[in-house]
Every structure is written in C-alpha cells, then in structure tokens.
Design a protein that fits this description.
The structure holds two protein chains of two kinds. By secondary structure, chain A is mostly helical. In chain A, about 75% of the residues lie in helices and about 0% in strands. Chain B has two domains: about 60-170 and about 325-385, 3-Layer(aba) Sandwich (D-Maltodextrin-Binding Protein, domain 2); about 175-325 and about 415-460, Periplasmic binding protein-like II (D-Maltodextrin-Binding Protein, domain 2, 3-Layer(aba) Sandwich). The longest helix of chain B is centred in the first third of the chain and has 29 residues, at about 15-45. The chains are: A mainly alpha, B alpha/beta.
C-alpha cells in the first residue's frame, strides 16, 4: 500500500518527464532504425518509417547491416574515430592543464579584478569560428601544420580553454576558503593545498570540463574541415559529411550509422557522471 | 685496476648488461646512419622510382566528392597512380563535398597555401587575381583536339583580360527526370514549360507534384536561369550588360509562379541540392530537373521506379530550348602553387585521354573538348546507347542535350565575375521565390534584381575584371 502511494506521488513527475524523454530519445531511435534499413524500405513513402518493412515478427529479416559494413570497409571511418579520440584526448589534457590553474587564480587570487578578467575570457569564447577560421588558417599554414592533427590540437584549446576557465572559476569560488587556510596552517604550500585539497573537492567541475571539452572536439566542424583535407587525417565531424554525401546523393543509412556510433560512448559518459556534471555546471551559480 | 681477465664471462652465452648496451648502441648507430641514408641511396643503387622521369615532386589536387563512388576510387587508385609513375610525381587527390568547395578555396587564399590544383564546379571567375593564366595549355590541347566546346570556353575565359583563368575539364548535361507512367496518365509529355503548367494540377492532385526548387542551392540556380533563357531572357547580354529587367523575364516569372501554384508544394522554398533527388527517389515527384544522379542512384539502389524514370532535354520555351550545364568542372592553379609544371601537365594529359573519365563517371562528366573522346558526339552516342539499364537507350539523349541544349552560366555572354557572384549568392532563385510567394509582382522582382545586378556588375568592372 505504501509503495502504491509512493508510486502515485511520483506519477506527476513521470508524466512531465516522459514526453521530454520520448522527444529527446526519438532522433536516436530514428537513427538506429534507419541505419539498418534496405534502400527499398527507406525510399518507399508508403512504408511505416518507424519499423522495418515488410513488417514481420522476425524483423531482422527485413533489415540489413550492409550500410554499417560500408562505412567500416569502404571509408576511413575507423581512422576518423581514432583521430577524434586522439584530438579529443589531447585537447582535454591541454585544457585541464591550463584552465584549472587559471580558473583557480582568477577565483582566489585576483579579487574583483579577477571577475572582470573572467568575463573577458568568456567573451573570447563567443567569437564564432566562422570569423576565426580564415586568420587561423594562415597561422596553421605558417606553422606547417596544415593537413595534420596537430593543427586541431593547437586550435581547439582556443575555444575550450576560455569556457573551461570561466566554468572552473565559478566552481572554485564555491569551495570554502577555510579549507585551504587550514591546509596552509598545517604546513602545505599553495601548490600542495591545490593538489591535495582543492582539486579533489573540485572533481565534479573538472569532470564537467573533461566531458564538455571532449564533446566540443567531437562536434567541431569548421576547423576540422578547413585545416585538414586528407580523408585519412580527418575527424568524424569532417569525414562523415565529406565522404557520405556525394554530390547531391546522401548515403542516409551510412550517415545515420556514422553519427550514432560516436554518440553512444558520449551518451554513456554523460549518464555515468550525470550528477557530478550537473554539480559542475551549477557549482558557481548561487554565489 | 681490473684487467681483461677479470671481466665476467657467462658460460651459458647470456649477455651482460654491458653487452646489451654496447650491441644496442652499435645497432642503433647502424640503423640511424644507414637507415637514414637508404632513402637517398635508393635512386642511385636501385631502380628509378618511376621509369620515365619527366617532372618531379608532389602534386596536390582538391576536387569534389563525385556522386559516383567508383569514379573517385578509379581516379585515386588507378588513374593518378599511373600518371604519377609515368611522370615521376607523387599525386594526392583530396575530395570534399561540393557545397564546401568555395569555403575551402577561401581558406587556401587566406593562408597562401594548399593544393596545386583546385577544381570548382562553377566558373571561378572572381578568383582570377589569385590564379595563374592557363592560355598555354588551352592552346596545347586545342592544337591536338580542335576547338573546345562553347560552354567550356565561355566558362573559363575572360575576354577583358584575355586570360584563361581556369581550365575547363568537363561539363554535365542537365536533363529533366520524369515518371513516364504519371505523365502518361496526365495525358501530356513534359516537352515544354507550357505543357508542365497544364499538367501540373492533375499531377499534384494525384499526389505527385512537380519538383522545381526555388532556394539557395545549385539545382534551383541552374533550373531557373535555364527557364529565363527558354523565355528569351538572360542575366546579361553578349556585351556583359545587365539585361534582367525585361518582358521575357516577367513572362518566365509568371510561368514559374503558375507552375508553383498549380502543381508544387511549399517544400521547394527550403530545399537543399539533395532534396529533389530524395523526393524523386521516394516516389513523390513526377518531375525534377537534375543531372543523371537521380536515375543512376535509382539503378544502383535497385529501386522499382528506375524503370519508370525517363530523362529528356530541358522543356522548350516560347523562344528556345536551352539550359545551363548542371555543373562545370573547372580546374585552376593558385599563384602560390608549388608544382605548377606538374599541375599543367596533369590537366593536359587528363583532357587528352578523357574517354575513361567519361565512362568511369557513368556518362556524368562530358569532356570540355568533345574530341577527347575519339569520334566526338558520334562515339558518345554509340557508347551511351550500350548502357544496359532499362529503359534501354535512355542515356542516348544525353549526347544530344550536351550538344544542342546546353550552355554556360551567363549566356549569351561569358561567365564573368559578376555572374559568378550572382550565382553564388543565389539572387535568381530569390527573385523567383519572391514572386511565387506573392511577396512581389513579377515586374517588381525584375526591377529589384536589375538594381542588385547593376551594383554587382559595377563592383567587378571597377576591379578591372569585366569589360
């Protein structure tokens, strides 16, 4: 009886959440279905688009894996995935190394002046890549980095560091100053206090930076497309639209597969650290 | 002081740490020295990298991702490899989506580096100051193959500067695709724009509207400029003077508005270049204007409607039956290109043996010099006639369209820089869409376009790129 009452109490919550969940999950369902569809199924408007046609219990007999095989066997897709992971991983590392101390310094050591600098750094993030790609391509060429992954590893921190610094600045402000003071009184240096006290407490914020930075790297298109022109050096975001849209012909099923596959680990990562992720984002919101 | 006899000897043959270090150092030294020299030594002590050394270095090419995947596979894997071996050049071809070509070119200009050869799918007239003239190789090919086609010449030559700013490589005929059974039921054949206007209501009522785009994308641009020509209108005259504000333009605008009202849906204002392909392949459209990618895709994917999909020349207007090429493959060589000699040789050789390109592209790429397929249009007709897809002989019409019904963007003048800007800013589809949506009368739209065009023409005249 008690559990029924508890269930009834949470019913309104589910009624509110369920439509959102369905709407947000629907594109993924659509991608999943489409990537296994036969051409004759996909291009027939009389077919029900949400299932495999002809409709039958043994639904897998109406589906095909050939479009998924195509991206692994006929394109450089596995290389694009690897390149994306390399670029994402290194950019995350660079971003953490630079933005964590910068965010801490702005939060702790600079007083009111730090607030202004923090906002200025965030404004840098708002300059769109569509304006920056032309001057940056000059820089990349001068450094002989064109057509290499290093061009992306160099340029991506230009937009991940400002946002991450701003985010971490807000987060560090939520950590009581007394914690650090106690560590300093106990004989810790500033650096040791940072390493032993501040960073462990800031794990949600740092984790947010990791996920956010990696996602930005996976999604980024303009720099990835402009600075890299060889198919085998591309990342997923530039490789997929270049090799799976041929002229005015879209390879729909392969496109869906190619975009869904990298979305799955990212979604799992988000889900695994959801609570910390929310904490990280809202860390400095109420101070 | 220990002597040699004191050194530890292992009877089982095991190595000491010192042995490992000593041998490792010697090995590393040998690999570093002789391994490093091997690459340099190879040309002297082994065979030449390629037998018929003529050129040298690297050649980097940027071009679109062809809609026929096998064409790119053949080009990258067979053609350029063979050409590279023959000329001792390391050739690398990068492919990008056609819509991204202009931004990739802009980035290369900004950075002052990139590919040696760059291919556009419309005349790159606005880039004339950034590229080298190619008159010499045009002349060389013309000597061997005879006159180049008009469409190619007017898409790559600037009569004001007397320069070939680009090397026309191929052009693509732009037929209509129509569903034969649907038009048969409507009792009309889509041979004229007036016939389409008459049949449109019946087709739309049957659930199969006409699909003619009016938005900022390639297909709409080509189609609507072609419609203007068929009604006797044009963007400019032969002397490169703005000519859009005419009675003929008003008539063309009216006919398109009628076709839209009677036989189309408002999707056509939000289309991309792929939309007419997708809508046609899904069986929804009764007619679309596109290169043969629609038919070829239907064949390749084994769709049932392939047998019912016919192609025909652009519909006739009251004045003529003439349409733009669908895409115009033009290569250019940047001033900053590192291997200009190899780039030029590549273009000449490619054009001289274009037959294979024509076949590998499944009759998509027509050569800029018709005689590069030995026997010209006569041979092209014979070859296209051998295509085994049903309905048999369908592709035969392509040669006729390429020969008689295809012209350049900017007809009757040259595809100059002003025309290039009008093309790339999609002002013509905008003009048609304004009228179809009743936001302007045809007369107002023609006048508004006239004002815009004159500003653009003035800008490029001031830069000295137009007569």
């Amino acid at each position: 009886m008690a559990s029924l009452r508890a269930g009834l109490r949470s019913l309104p919550t589910y009624l509110v959440v369920a439509p959102f969940a369905i709407v947000l999950a629907f594109p993924f369902y659509w991608m999943l279905m489409t990537m296994f569809k036969e051409d004759s199924d996909l291009y027939d408007v009389t077919h029900v688009p949400y299932v495999f046609n002809p409709i039958q219990w043994r639904f897998w007999e109406s589906a095909t894996t050939k479009h998924v095989s195509f991206i692994f066997e006929e394109t450089n897709y596995p290389t694009w995935l690897l390149n994306t992971a390399i670029v994402g991983g290194l950019v995350v590392l660079i971003t953490l190394v630079i933005s964590a101390p910068a965010g801490y310094a702005l939060a702790r050591l600079s007083g009111r002046w730090g607030q202004g600098v923090g906002i200025a750094i965030f404004l840098v993030y708002l300059v769109p890549p569509t304006l920056l790609f032309l001057p940056l391509s000059r820089l990349v060429t001068e450094l002989h980095l064109k057509d290499t992954l290093w061009s992306l590893i160099l340029v991506y921190p230009s937009f991940t560091i400002p946002f991450s610094t701003w985010l971490l600045m807000g987060f560090f402000k939520t950590i009581p100053q007394e914690l650090e003071d106690a560590a300093l009184i106990d004989g810790c240096s500033r650096l040791k206090a940072l390493r032993k006290i501040v960073f462990p407490v800031s794990l949600p914020g740092l984790l947010t930076v990791v996920i956010f930075t990696f996602t930005l790297c996976v999604n980024e298109f303009i720099y990835a497309f402009t600075f890299v022109s060889s198919s085998e050096v591309r990342t997923v975001s530039a490789g997929v639209p270049n090799d799976l849209i041929r002229g005015d012909v879209f390879f729909w099923q392969s496109l869906m597969a190619a975009t869904l596959i990298p979305a799955i680990p990212l979604a799992l990562l988000y889900n695994a650290f959801l609570d910390r992720f929310i904490k990280g984002f809202t860390g400095g919101a109420f101070r | 002081m220990p002597d040699a006899g004191d050194e530890l000897v292992r009877p089982d043959g095991q190595l000491t740490r010192r042995d490992v270090l000593r041998r490792g150092t010697a090995g590393a030294f040998a690999i570093t020295m002789f391994g490093g020299l091997a690459e340099r030594a190879f040309p002297f002590y082994g065979p030449l990298r390629y037998q018929h050394k003529q050129l040298s270095g690297e050649l980097k090419i940027m071009q679109w991702t062809h809609f026929v995947p096998d064409y790119d596979k053949w080009l990258d894997g067979t053609y350029v490899k063979q050409w590279g071996e023959k000329n001792d050049v390391e050739v690398k071809v990068d492919h990008i989506n056609l819509a991204l070509l202009p931004s990739a070119a802009a980035s290369e200009v900004a950075s002052g580096g990139g590919h040696d050869l760059f291919q556009f799918l419309f005349p790159p007239s606005a880039l004339e100051k950034q590229v080298i003239p190619l008159n010499d190789i045009v002349q060389e090919v013309t000597k061997k193959l005879g006159k180049m086609t008009d469409v190619a010449q007017k898409s790559s030559y600037n009569p004001k500067t007397k320069k070939y700013y680009g090397f026309a490589d191929n052009y693509v005929p732009d037929p209509i695709h129509y569903r034969k059974s649907m038009w048969f039921n409507a009792g009309v054949f889509p041979s004229s724009w007036d016939a389409i206007r008459r049949a449109a209501p019946a087709l739309k009522n049957a659930g199969h509207p006409v699909g003619l785009g009016m938005t900022g994308e390639l297909d709409s641009n080509m189609l609507l400029m072609s419609l203007l020509y068929c009604y006797g209108a044009s963007l400019q005259d032969e002397e490169s003077r703005v000519a859009i504000n005419s009675k003929a333009t008003v008539e063309a605008l009216k006919v398109m508005r009628d076709i839209y009202r009677r036989g189309m849906t408002d999707e056509v204002f939000a289309w991309t270049a792929a939309s007419n392909n997708d809508a046609f392949l899904a069986g929804r459209l009764s007619l679309a204007l596109n290169a043969i990618s629609i038919r070829r895709t239907a064949e390749d994917r084994g769709l049932a409607l392939a047998d019912d999909t016919w192609i025909a020349p652009i519909p006739r207007g009251p004045v003529r039956r003439l349409g733009n090429e669908h895409v115009m493959g033009i290569y250019f060589i940047w001033k900053f290109a590192k291997n200009k000699a190899a780039a030029k040789r590549f273009l000449v050789d490619q054009q001289l043996g274009y037959r294979q390109h024509f076949l590998q592209s499944k009759f998509y790429n027509f050569p800029a010099w018709t005689n590069s397929v030995k026997g010209g249009f006569k041979t092209i007709r014979r070859v296209t006639n051998q295509d085994r897809h049903k309905p048999l002989g369908q592709y035969n019409i392509l040669a006729s369209i390429a020969e008689k019904n295809t012209t350049n963007v900017g007809y009757p003048g040259y595809a100059n820089a002003a025309i290039g800007e009008i093309w790339s800013t999609y002002l013509v589809p905008q003009m048609f869409a304004q009228v179809a949506q009743d936001k302007m009368t045809p007369q107002e739209a023609a006048k508004a376009a006239d004002r815009q065009f004159k500003q653009i023409f003035k800008k490029w005249r001031d830069q000295g790129l137009m007569p």
